[in-house]
Structure formats: structure tokens, C-alpha cells
């Protein structure tokens, strides 16, 4: 019986060794890279979200962005205006963020306020209706412009 390592795949900081044993290919080992954190489990209800990464649609990058504007816990999102969060992030980073970030903020706030988990892109139509492209503002001197109504 021969044992050969066919390849090592790296997906989301996890290594999978694919080995071929007796003409059968199978994944046999899984190990994390040193220093990487296991992914946070997504909460199925707002009260179960104890860290920002547990909110559906919020990964490490968005959680880092949200923390940079002062939101430390998931419950801090309740009652917040997603557009104001988006504007604060634009101001903090001094650049206009992708509008999909606003969709993600809408989904996170709605989830924490009790709405069922939905993919962030299901909020795109709401964003386009409520916040037309002009209200997101073109970057002015490297920062988002604020809307007068906010």
C-alpha cells in the first residue's frame, strides 16, 4: 500500500492534507496555522451573539472596522443608525467605503434588533432606496461627506 501526499491546501487559514491511499483520495488531516484563531460560530439569535464575529455577515475585517468606530460588543449595535456607522467608518479611514459595507451594517443592526439572519445582499435594495448613491457621497479630501439630514 502506497501513501503519497498529493497536495496541501490552505483555505481560510486551515491546512488540509490530501493523501492518496490505495488508489483512494481522501482528506486525512486538518490543522490550523500557528497563531490563527478558530472562526467564531455564527449566532442564530441576537442574544446568542457575544462577539462581533458571531453576527451573521460579520467577519474579522468588518468586526475590526466596527471596533475602530467605537462599537465593542454586539449589543452596542441595537438602536444605531447603519448609515451613521458607515459615515463614521468613512471618516475614520478617510476614504469612501464600498456601499456593500453599508449593506453589511444594515444586516448586522437589523439582526441585533431581532430580525432573522439574512445575507447582506438582501439589504441592497433597501440601501439603494433609502440612501441613493448621492447620499453616500464622493470622497471629499479623502473622507466621506455627510448628508444634511443625518
What proportion of the residues form beta strands (DSSP E)? 15-25%
Helix vs. strand class: alpha+beta
Strand arrangement across the biggest beta sheet: 1-2-3
What's the total number of strands? Answer: 3
Largest sheet: 3 strands, antiparallel
Model description:
- The protein is globular, with a radius of gyration of 20 Å.
- It is built from five helices and three strands.
- Strands 1-2-3 form a three-stranded antiparallel beta sheet, with no helix packed on it.
- The chain has helices at residues 60-68, 82-93, 99-112, 124-130, 133-136; strands at residues 3-11, 14-21, 24-32.
Topology of helices and strands:
Blueprint: E1 3-11, E2 14-21, E3 24-32, H1 60-68, H2 82-93, H3 99-112, H4 124-130, H5 133-136
Helix pairs in contact: 2-3
Amino acid at each position: 500500500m502506497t501513501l503519497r501526499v498529493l497536495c496541501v491546501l490552505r483555505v481560510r487559514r486551515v491546512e488540509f492534507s490530501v493523501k492518496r491511499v490505495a488508489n483512494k483520495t481522501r482528506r486525512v488531516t486538518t490543522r490550523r496555522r500557528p497563531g490563527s484563531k478558530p472562526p467564531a460560530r455564527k449566532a442564530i439569535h441576537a442574544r446568542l451573539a457575544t462577539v462581533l464575529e458571531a453576527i451573521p455577515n460579520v467577519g474579522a475585517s468588518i468586526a475590526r472596522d466596527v471596533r475602530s468606530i467605537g462599537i465593542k460588543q454586539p449589543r452596542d449595535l441595537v438602536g444605531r443608525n447603519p448609515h451613521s456607522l458607515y459615515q463614521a467608518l468613512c471618516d475614520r479611514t478617510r476614504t469612501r467605503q464600498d456601499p456593500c459595507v453599508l449593506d453589511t451594517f444594515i444586516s448586522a443592526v437589523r439582526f441585533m434588533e431581532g430580525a432573522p439572519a439574512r445575507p447582506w445582499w438582501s439589504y441592497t435594495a433597501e440601501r439603494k432606496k433609502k440612501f441613493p448613491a448621492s447620499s453616500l457621497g464622493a470622497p471629499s479630501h479623502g473622507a466621506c461627506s455627510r448628508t444634511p439630514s443625518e
